[in-house]
Amino acid sequence: MGHSSNQHSVKLWLAIISFLEELNDEGEAKLQQMFEKSIETIGHTDFSSTPIWQKYIDFETMRNNLAFVNVLCF
């Protein structure tokens, strides 16, 4: 998948995650599942996935899951 396609995928995943955050009906487990699925789909090393990683880190920080935040950062 090319860089441009990946950027579109990132935007789509961010929209899905933002939608779930706004709904707040699905719970944290569903949101975490979407973060994991988005990273799995987009890839771990593509620079364009940075906004998803940042949102995921913020999400886990708000949950006070700091040990997992350290894992995400590395």
Describe the structure.
- This protein has about 70 residues and is mainly alpha-helical.
- The protein has one domain (about 5-74).
- Helices cover about 80% and strands about 0% of the residues.
- The protein contains 4 helices and no strands.
- Helix 1 packs antiparallel against helix 2 (about 25-40) and helix 2 runs antiparallel to helix 3.
- It starts with a helix and ends with a helix.
- The mean pLDDT is about 85.
Gap between N and C termini, in Å?
A: 24 Å
Low-confidence stretches: none
Shape: globular
Provide the domain count. Answer: 1
- The counted number of beta strands is 0
Question: What's the helical proportion of residues?
Answer: over 70%
Q: How big is the Rg?
A: 12 Å
Rounded mean pLDDT is 85
Largest sheet: none
- Encode the helix/strand succession as letters: HHHH
Count, helices: 4
Q: Structural class from helices and strands?
A: mainly alpha
Strand content: under 5%
